[in-house]
Amino acid sequence: MSYLGVSDMTGNEWENQAVFDFQGNALRGIKAFNYSNLTNLLQNNSFEWDGYTESSSSWNIWKNGQISGIKTEVYDNTRYKLSFWSDKAYESSIYQTVGNLSSGTYKLSIDAMGGTSLENAELYIKNYGGNEQKISLKDSNTWKTYTIDNIQITNGQCEVGAYVTSSANKWLNIDNVRLVKVD
Asked: From which domain of life does this come (predicted)?
């Protein structure tokens, strides 16, 4: 990789100090510049576009027949998050379909905080040319970043989303959903 004259091999014109192993062999440079151009491919990924709403732009909402509290709310006095909550048992998801993707390796991540007593809460990616991948979001009562790495998109599209099933009065907050191409 070369970026503005910087190489991921040994040394570069900005930093001319090579690092060597114990046998005197030059080590490969860190791919520090590889991550500087990561563009988030999701729209309205931080739920800021609409302010307080129950239908966040660029996201589709699915509810299994019941009333479910999916809405954006202010937190930190300046930013919005998306919240799942209901005073009745519920099953819901929010998802986005992304097209025109080039084949390659992608990473999906999300910031989430929710009660550990949810029946199911997960970040997922599917319809990308491989098997559906998911990661549980129900193990933290504080904000935490969850990541699915090494997603090989081969068909030019994918669906990403968050899915929750829960008994009454349980909640999950999400924010900063990111899908980036890493290679």
From this structure: Bacteria
Tell me how far apart the alpha carbons of residues 15 and 32 are, in angstroms, rounded to a whole number: 12
38-66 core/surface letters (b: 16 or more CB in 10 A; e: else): eeebbebbbbeeeeeeeebeebebeeeee
Say if strands 60-63 and 120-126 run parallel, antiparallel, or are unpaired: unpaired
Question: Could you read off the pLDDT tens digit of each residue along the chain, which spans 183 residues?
Answer: 444 544 444 444 455 466 777 887 777 665 544 555 689 999 999 888 877 677 777 899 898 877 667 777 777 666 888 999 888 999 999 999 999 999 999 999 999 998 778 999 999 999 999 999 999 998 888 899 999 999 999 999 999 999 999 999 999 999 999 999 999
d(C-alpha 160, C-alpha 154), whole Å: 15
Burial code (b: 16+ CB inside 10 Å, e: under 16) for 149-163 equals eebebeeeebebbbb
Tell me the residue type at 167. S
Contacts of 16 (CB under 8 A, 6+ apart): none
